[in-house]
Structures are given as C-alpha cells and as structure tokens.
Specification:
alpha/beta; FAD/NAD(P)-binding domain; 2 domains; 19 strands; about 20% strand
Amino acid sequence: MRKAPQHVLVIGGGIIGLSIAYRLATRGAHVTLVDRGIPGHECTWAAGGMLAPTCEGEVADRALVALGYDSLHRYHAWVSELESLTGLDCCLGSGETLLVATDHDERGQTEHMARLITNKGGHVERLHLDDARAMAPLLTPRLTLAYRVQGDRWIEPRALCQALVEALHRMNVDVRENHEATCQDFVMADAVVLACGAWHDLLKHSPSDSPFTLAGEVDTPTFVRAGCGRVGGGANGHFSLGIRPIRGQTVHLTGASLLNHVVRTPRVYLVPRRDGVVIGATSEEQGFDRTSPAGGVYELLRYGIQTVPALYELHFSEVAVGFRSATKDHMPVLDKVPQSSIYVATGHYRDGILLAPASADHMAEMIMTGEKPDAIEPFSWRAQ
Ligand SMILES: Cc1cc2nc3c(=O)[nH]c(=O)nc-3n(C[C@H](O)[C@H](O)[C@H](O)COP(=O)(O)OP(=O)(O)OC[C@H]3O[C@@H](n4cnc5c(N)ncnc54)[C@H](O)[C@@H]3O)c2cc1C
C-alpha cells in the first residue's frame, strides 16, 4: 500500500504554493516552503483579486470554467478557516461583478462580453441603469448599458497571502524567504511541489548546486536526489512546460472605499479595496521586463476615471507589475511529473487567485493519497 509522503518541499510561495503548503499541513504532512524572494510578492502581489470564473479572457474552456466555479464555491469556507486560525481579515468582498458601458463605443463590446460570459455558463442579468447606480452610486452619469454577473466575488490578494503565511507559521511549516531550493532541501523531502509561476521553465537554468540542473542539463532522463525518484517527463527529462511570462500592471489608488462591486468595462476593471481601488490591467509580452510603460498606466487611469469619476480624488499609491504564467493553451498544469515524486502546480495565468483553494485541495489530495481527483484530470502534465 502507498504511504503518504512524510515531508513535502514546496518551491514557490505565491498564492498557489502557499495554498498547497497550507492544505498539506492541515492534512498532516511536514512541509517546508521556500521562496527566492518574499512569499506573495510576485504575480500575486499585482493581482486585482476578482473571483470571476467566466469574466476573464476569450477562451471558453469548460473544464477551466468548472474548476473556477469549484474553487469559487470553496472560497468562503477556506477564508473562514484561515481567519479563525490566524485572527487576520482576508478581506473577502461580498459584491458581484458589474459589466458596464460608459459611452456609446463600449456598448457593442459590452454586449459581446455578456454573450461570452453566458456561453461560458455564467449568469448575466441585464440591469436597468438606476439599479446599476443603486449598486455602485459613483458610476459615471454617462452609463449606457449595465449587466450584473451573478455569484462573482472579490478578495484582497495581499491580505489573503498575509493570512496564509501566518497560518503556515501556526501550522509549524518551515517557511524560508530569500531562499532558492538546494539539493539538501530536496534530499530531506520525499515529495516536491513546483509552484514557481512564470519562472517554472527557468528552473533548469538554476545554479549548479540546484537539483534542477540535474534534471535539465543531461541528455537522458535524470535522477533527482533521494526520495524523488526518476524524472521521465519530456523528451530529455526536462521540466519545461513552454510557460511564458505575460506582464500585467495594476494601478493602486487609496484614500476611500468607493466601491463594493467589481466594475468591468471593455477597457478596464476596478476592484474594490478596504481603503481604495485597484485599476487593471495591462497585458504585455515583454519577457521578465519589470518596467512600467507610461502609456499603459495612463490608459488605466484614463478609463478608470471615465468609469468612476470620483477616482480622480484618490491618492496614487503604486503601479504593481506581475508576470502571469501562461502555457501555450492558457490552461494550468496540476499534475505529477511521470515516474517521480515531483508535482507541478503552475500556469494559472489570469485566474490564480480564483483557482487557489481548488488547486490546493486537489493537489493535496493527489499528493497524500496518490489518487488524482477527476476535477484536475484535464490539467495534466504536458511537457514540451
Ligand atoms: C495584473 C494582474 C492582475 C491579475 N488579476 C487577477 C484576478 O483578478 N483574479 C485572479 O484570479 N487572478 C489574477 N491574476 C493572476 C494571478 O495573479 C496569478 O495567476 C497568480 O498570482 C499566480 O500565482 P503563483 O503562485 O502561480 O505565482 P507567483 O505569485 O508569481 O508566485 C511564484 C513564486 O515562486 C517563486 N519562485 C520562482 N522561482 C523560484 C525558485 N527557483 N526557487 C524558489 N522560489 C521561486 C517566486 O519568487 C514567486 O514568489 C492577475 C495577474 C496580474 C499580473
């Protein structure tokens, strides 16, 4: 009979690695989490925090939408669990998504977005403009069309990460910041989870004392150190999944809580914060360039203020830059590398905040029992 792993090493402390580490710890595993920076401070730091299974992207993959709803339905209980363990507020909002057109030009695209959401299985209700204003009184007087997307929520990703890190400390998880995984980390673990987001494909270029060099730079499928078995995935035993970074910028404004609902137009979205609003988001393929072109920031501010003019009075606080992890088909990978004890949870692209609780629960189930849940069957290992 298969024994559940005793000690699991999680590499990467974004929302995905943190959530998996937490769920593994609650299921009795001894967990170490390493991040080469500060946990939660990469892509997760820039995220808006929309929990909206049907609003993001043109792709209408049924399995992904189903995983999104699966995750959304887990959110309330998961957040309550974290809040009662840590005493911290994860700032889970109760508002839904309002889809609006703020001028004549946006009408057609807004109708198209509403159709797309319906095709994906979302529930969209056309609103009388007075009802939209009752939900978000500071919306522009120039509003021409409004829909409500039922069931969507939002959360503050930074508050959620803070609670997750605190929960890991309370569960005695060994959290190592500013720490790149070493061979010694690997030796002590009998299962490893790779949750490095957009940096996944760079693992094979890690320094020579890293286990990933062994996996990536020899011709034959390679041996990873004690307990982890043999890496057979990919023609050369590489971990490569063809992941590319998609840069995204969000503008953070503070000073007052102006919204309770996410407001989306074809050009921008506005996500509420306890003390302000986040305007998102750009989408650029510029590798790992962390600069913020002024044009993108200008457009976010311009269309954000066009949608809710009162944003003009808030304080400019920050432009956050994050790198979304995109696979070729824009679907995540939630699986085990064949013939190894290495697990992969990456490629969450635009939906990692939404997908965190379901990804964590299903990955922990697979790692602890050896059985892969049906819900993540469509997100299997697809080495390049
Ligand atoms: C502008 C923007 C807005 C977004 N808005 C939303 C939204 O509203 N809703 C939503 O659901 N999603 C949203 N997303 C997507 C979401 O932010 C991501 O899908 C999610 O944060 C991915 O989490 P992650 O843990 O995989 O990656 P990350 O948060 O990037 O974490 C990866 C971690 O791995 C660490 N790491 C990498 N390599 C190594 C290594 N070799 N050793 C140790 N550590 C390593 C990094 O330091 C990093 O901390 C948005 C993204 C962006 C950019």
